[in-house]
């Protein structure tokens, strides 16, 4: 097999990026380890504890020193999360916790989960798997969830309210403290999806984490802005008791129970997450946030100068209305671009590999294609004799 992965040079819409060199090296070293069997693979299981401790620090979660992330019950406090295969698994598991907690065995109506329309499509997978009804509520003109709409649809069947901290399409942050109060009013859990935003939000003044609000569970992915190798997602829980909702007995392993969704898991993901966070938290991530945010604001103003409508980048993600013909011509040139769900806007995710130099090359291509297409339009107009 001689295939090589694509270069990141022209990848502008992905939420993944080149792993940090230390993360790449750690991933290779731990390829043949399985944190799903902590009794056997002790070193990587300990690394997972380190990963959860740092993720907790990033997300304002007070973790008890006696915590133990492996479900082997050696310490009193129990795990505060685990390294998932990604944001999707973290979201599925968070809703699974909420459903388990809401089910009092009385056979009441199906539990519901309230999500903003800006929520990631993984919540639809979760609802399908878990037989939960999603109540999708609209966002306001600011592209954040409409709190009145959330208040209007929560009731005794609500198992969880979801807030997005860094939405996939527009990089918006829902009002998390207010959502926490609403969830509390009906005894539902608050889940925050910071899968993408979690590694940039600490350097902003948004209120998004366990220390800011009554957050119960959170998705936060090292394999996106965290610069870890894929797969490395994160599920954090406010208290170990919440993870117990997920625990099943594991008869043939050395450990006694497992709260994860998958069984065998990637030790490479765990080790690379620890390596990336050791290298980069907090200063490296802060520097990267500043670079990415500056690039997003620069790109937004360059596109506005060219007459395109641009959604203000609150986080390092720009959404701009480019004509379909231009979008397609740019893709023909090899630019990896995608559009928002309503097809209205092209997304530019200013990940670490999206440097100013690469954006300059992109804009030069955009200008050339624009000039070529107006020259072609001029020729057509001329040949019609007008
Ligand atoms: C990317 C993303 C997800 C899904 O994460 P995967 O790692 O692709 O499973 C969920 N939520 C948000 C907000 C995301 O940006």
Automatic annotation (TrEMBL):
<dbReference type="InterPro" id="IPR015421">
    <property type="entry name" value="PyrdxlP-dep_Trfase_major"/>
</dbReference>
<dbReference type="InterPro" id="IPR015424">
    <property type="entry name" value="PyrdxlP-dep_Trfase"/>
</dbReference>
<dbReference type="InterPro" id="IPR002129">
    <property type="entry name" value="PyrdxlP-dep_de-COase"/>
</dbReference>
<dbReference type="GO" id="GO:0004068">
    <property type="term" value="F:aspartate 1-decarboxylase activity"/>
</dbReference>
<keyword id="KW-0663">Pyridoxal phosphate</keyword>
<comment type="similarity">
    <text>Belongs to the group II decarboxylase family. MfnA subfamily.</text>
</comment>
<dbReference type="InterPro" id="IPR050477">
    <property type="entry name" value="GrpII_AminoAcid_Decarb"/>
</dbReference>
<feature type="region of interest" description="Disordered">
    <location>
        <begin position="64"/>
        <end position="87"/>
    </location>
</feature>
<protein>
    <recommendedName>
        <fullName>Probable L-aspartate decarboxylase</fullName>
        <ecNumber>4.1.1.11</ecNumber>
    </recommendedName>
</protein>
<keyword id="KW-0456">Lyase</keyword>
<keyword id="KW-0210">Decarboxylase</keyword>
<dbReference type="InterPro" id="IPR020931">
    <property type="entry name" value="MfnA"/>
</dbReference>
<comment type="pathway">
    <text>Cofactor biosynthesis; coenzyme A biosynthesis.</text>
</comment>
<comment type="function">
    <text>Catalyzes the decarboxylation of L-aspartate to produce beta-alanine.</text>
</comment>
<dbReference type="GO" id="GO:0015937">
    <property type="term" value="P:coenzyme A biosynthetic process"/>
</dbReference>
<dbReference type="Pfam" id="PF00282">
    <property type="entry name" value="Pyridoxal_deC"/>
</dbReference>
<dbReference type="InterPro" id="IPR015422">
    <property type="entry name" value="PyrdxlP-dep_Trfase_small"/>
</dbReference>
<dbReference type="GO" id="GO:0019752">
    <property type="term" value="P:carboxylic acid metabolic process"/>
</dbReference>
<feature type="compositionally biased region" description="Basic and acidic residues">
    <location>
        <begin position="64"/>
        <end position="77"/>
    </location>
</feature>
<feature type="modified residue" description="N6-(pyridoxal phosphate)lysine">
    <location>
        <position position="224"/>
    </location>
</feature>
<comment type="similarity">
    <text>Belongs to the group II decarboxylase family. Sphingosine-1-phosphate lyase subfamily.</text>
</comment>
<dbReference type="GO" id="GO:0030170">
    <property type="term" value="F:pyridoxal phosphate binding"/>
</dbReference>
